[in-house]
Write a structure and sequence with these properties.
CATH architecture of the largest domain: Orthogonal Bundle
Number of helices: 10
Organism: Mitsuokella jalaludinii
Helix content: over 70%
Structural class: mainly alpha
CATH class of the largest domain: Mainly Alpha
GO molecular function: DNA-binding transcription factor activity; transcription cis-regulatory region binding
Pfam family, one: TetR_N
Order of helices and strands: HHHHHHHHHH
CATH topology of the largest domain: Tetracycline Repressor, domain 2
CATH superfamily of the largest domain: Tetracycline Repressor, domain 2
Number of domains: 2
Protein name: Fatty acid metabolism regulator protein
Keywords: DNA-binding, Transcription, Transcription regulation
Number of strands: 0
Oligomer: single chain
Length: 203
């Protein structure tokens, strides 16, 4: 019975992954608004009804993918923390991983920016504007935690609050997304991040 349940759970995980992978392909190809649930499920080679066994809406898929970004950044930074890397290296790595993820999944950028904006607002107002039932992934708090740790360790300037500096990091992605400069998104983020780190790092 346990082996049977194990197979069933594995099948569920594979189906969920197939839906997520298909959604990424379709969103990248057609854009979020133009992609239907039917498009996603056709690409996943699964019945439309199966979609609602795993997700309530397309928006929930976006939130799930943003959660994947948070997990990816968090894991990389845990490994760097274990290696006792300084806070400014953690900030650079987190910024680089985020830029790569968003560049590879550009359909997520508007929601990423909106989630960052809402995280700075009162919880009730933020929840009113996010898709119903969605929870904003805790991305901003990752940067805030690193900044606070860096300030306590004497690596980061402490004459500005950590949450204010974290907002500056988020603004880098928006500025890069709308930049008219003849450089790619990831390079743009990297250059802006380097300048920001130079300004907040203690000599």
């Amino acid at each position: 019975m346990e082996e049977k349940m194990g197979r069933r759970e594995r099948k569920k995980l594979l189906s969920r992954k197939a839906i997520l992978d298909a959604a990424v392909r379709e969103f990248s190809r057609k854009g979020f608004k133009e992609t239907s649930v039917a498009d996603i499920m056709n690409a996943a080679d699964l019945g439309i009804g199966t979609f609602y066994n795993y997700f309530e809406s397309k928006e929930e898929i976006l939130m799930c993918l943003l959660g994947c970004l948070v997990d990816e950044v968090d894991k990389a930074l845990r490994d760097m923390r274990a290696a006792k890397r300084p806070s400014y290296e953690l900030l650079e790595a987190g910024s680089r991983i985020t830029a790569r993820f968003l560049d590879e999944n550009r359909f997520l950028l508007p929601l990423f920016l909106a989630a960052a904006e809402h995280s700075a607002k009162p919880q009730t107002e933020a929840h009113d504007k996010m898709p119903k039932g969605m929870v904003t992934p805790g991305f901003k708090s990752i940067f805030e935690d690193i900044l606070r740790e860096g300030q306590l360790a004497g690596e980061i300037r402490d004459d500005a609050p950590a949450d204010l500096i974290a907002e500056m990091f988020h603004s880098v992605y928006q500025a890069a997304a709308f930049s008219k400069l003849p450089i790619g998104f990831q390079e743009n983020v990297a250059l802006k991040t380097r300048l920001l780190l130079a300004g907040i790092r203690k000599a």
